[in-house]
Write the structure tokens for this entry.
Amino acid sequence: MLTQEGCLARRTRLWDALPAELEWVLIADPRHVHYFSNFLVNPLSFSAGERGWLLLERGGKATLLGDNFTLRSRSGTPYIDDEVMVKWYDHKHSVINRDHALLQAAEQVSERLFGRAGAVEAEWLPVGAFELLGLDHEAHSVKKETRSTARRGPVDLGTVIRSLRRQKEADEIALLKECMRAGEAGQLRAREVVRPGVTEMEVFLEVQKAALAAAGRAGFIYGDFRACTPTVPKAGGLPTQYKLQKGDFYVLDYSVVLEGYRSDFTNALAVGEPTPQQRHLYDIVMAAQKNGETALRAGAKARDVFTATEKPIRDAGMADKFAHHAGHGIGLAHPEPPILVPESDDILMAGDVVTLEPGLYVEGIGGIRIEHNYLITATGYERLSQHSISLF
């Protein structure tokens, strides 16, 4: 899980990135509340989909806002100094609109914010909260003025936070590695069960069981659990009742999500003995991944990583069969910057966690995709995923 040290370090980086006159920020995106406080509504609880807000003040105080059921449906201990909890349900009375309970919590802190410069995460804050706090709902930040004269400010708080998310702290890397160890267990189990006559769904269930057993706790899994066949070489999404046949590729490209963070890596298994054509595709994508790795380092242009990854594919005369990005960032979202595509403006930085995932999709042969995850460092990279990539 996220640590107190990591949450405090992220708050420090946030304040360092904001104008000095700002005295408070109101965080509303549930991912960002988690990012700065370790408060996460358990997605497998009865409060899934609900949210709390986080008030951070430059002096260091962190206050969590929400209703009593939401604030108690958490997956870990939040690192906060105070909480404002509004009673929403007490097993005796009818309930109010749950969003109104959250607004009532915000109202309880509103008086101490008036007259102080602050910023809000505008994309996630409802109009009702702007009205309650006396803010211009078209503004992202509030200058040190009265509620009636608040004007648009220069701070796009949501974008600032998203940019900070790229540079992972040690607790985030540790959590990502937990996701990856679980994902590797699922990849290993797939090798034992993929064979002709087994359905995509049966493989999915075995992979899920193995991954969560390795994690040792509840989580959830999503991704591509599909056969890429000679007639349908590119297929993705959740599994169906299709029965695997000799000559298919089974593409296992999935994420294990633990406490909001995720892995994302891939292998494609040949169903039955690999054909010479399948081996040829495998050799090309392996060369592509290896060449892409040579470009991974802080300061590299994302578009140059794409070019390096694509080169063996282009040299083989198959660039038109490589129909997607060469990789992307991962963490609290999927995908997230940097994006490894031909016209990307992104620059890799130390602390990024990225994927490399070359693929080829050829009618008459099938579709193959492979993928590893990497932590970008000042001098190169650390490969975080350790699953075996091979056809069987």
In short: The first strand starts at residue 24 and ends at 27. The chain has ten helices and 17 strands.
